[in-house]
Amino acid sequence: MARGRYLGRIPLRSLPPEQAERYLLQWHPRRLALEPGSFPLLTSQAIFGNELPLEVEIGAGTGEFAASLAAADPAANVLAIELSNRSAHWAAWLAAESGLPNLKVLRADFKLLGPMLPTAAWRRAYLHFPDPQHKPADAKRIIFNQAFLDAMAGSLQPGGELSVVSDAPGFFMQMLELAEGDGRFAKAHPERYLEGYEPEVKSRFQQIWERKQRTPRQFVLKRI
Ligand SMILES: C[S@@+](CC[C@H](N)C(=O)[O-])C[C@H]1O[C@@H](n2cnc3c(N)ncnc32)[C@H](O)[C@@H]1O
What we know:
Strands 1, 2, 3, 4, 5, 6, 7, 8 and 9 form a 9-stranded mixed β-sheet that branches. The chain has one domain (37-223): 3-Layer(aba) Sandwich (Rossmann fold). It is α/β, with parallel strands linked by helices. The longest helix is centred in the middle third of the chain and has 14 residues, at 85-98. It contains 8 helices and 9 strands. The protein is globular. The relative contact order is 0.16. The structure holds S-adenosylmethionine (SAM). S-adenosylmethionine (SAM) binds next to strand 3 and helix 8.
């Protein structure tokens, strides 16, 4: 997580081994780099063993939003991808506590998952409250860039959607402008972007920024 946005250390929530096995996948960066062929594709069949539609949250943090998606739609699978060990464990603990059969947490760097991305397989992807860039050194941590749009164009099914939400106005506009220049997507709404975001369950970061009176903005892209 970018410095300056670090708002307290997340306690490590350990899971009993059988729960960890069921809810938490941990893909080590070194193995991802050296043996990409030994990992499964990020599809419902490979990760959940069924053919339900797949929704993916990238940078899922402690997983409140992903858990709410899974609880709201038992006829879909939700994969929460998260880089931080503590956050991923928290999210997996939440999944286990809720007993959701259709939610799994993948602890991995999304930027290393290129070889595991499927073609036209995801119903929805979410990038909510991604870390913004504060200084030039943060640039390598930015998830939303041309490579990310290429990944979404490949993995979303036709008509599939990508939701992007941010509380940081300048950063939000940068992402929006990049998205608007990409002819593989259309907006899923007539407005240029949506002011405010009111999901059933708000993520940890949405709650934090709203307490600081920062109104989130959202845009939703539809894969053409
Ligand atoms: C500001 S937090 C937002 C978390 C969550 N979406 C929320 O709204 O509470 C950004 C999250 O993205 C994760 N992240 C950053 N880079 C990542 C990457 N390359 N792959 C996966 N997760 C990443 C961070 O660890 C952090 O948990």
